[in-house]
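Marked as duplicate of an earlier ticket. Keeping the data here for the record.
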Amino acid sequence: MAFAYDPNLPWGWWLIRSGSMFEDADGRRWDSVREAFWHGRLRFPVTSSTDEQLELLLRLLLSIEYRLRPGRERAFGFFHGDLVLERFYMSWLASVGLLGSGEPTDFDGRDSPMSAFLSPEGRAAMLMLQATREPAWVDLPASELLDAIAAARRDDADEARERAIMAFETSVRRLPNVFERARIGSRHMVTLTGHLVDARMPTRSRMWSLSFGDERARDDFFAWLDERVASWEDWGRLAYDRGAAALTDHLLALFVVASGGRS
């Protein structure tokens, strides 16, 4: 059923409360207003990350309404810097009617979803998501929200691998040269820390790092490094003697050869 959405009223104001359920104009019954919106209106299937996805949608709608993250800052704030994913998400919002018109910045003169404002339904959805938001979500950093969405996709095998990697990290912590997983801002990284043995006072220093777009890619690479722990001492010396770029080139060559050998 189509509505002339009032942007000053939250989405779902028309739903009829029946006991513990909410009934829409088509007779469908929902456990909550959020469920009616996510599954009924947007037709998403039931998943374990629905709450996280709705929180991401709310934050994006708020940023559009109040112009909080202009330009590329939105891609880095919400999509780990993935400009293609940002454009797809914004195009999807326009396709389902949550965005109105924008400035004609596309090459063919059509309105671009990248500069669009919220439609009346988009603003109504924003008001509803704010009103039904759990307090615990309010102060959650964006990086942790994205982590929560990724974690919801993990299965038992992923959890088992994480436990194995953590146990391995504990066992190698006292090696002279240690590769470690790290999180710096929104970047997932692998770093190499080693002893500066030629210094008058031996200290540990981060000699090398490599950044990844997501946690899974980083952990795949770290698992590959784990299998070659016997070479860490040599690789630490390479980074110390010839610099981080030399180690990157060396590891890339080894990774390509190893990958080719398995194919």
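See parent ticket for discussion. The two ends are 53 Å apart (CA to CA).
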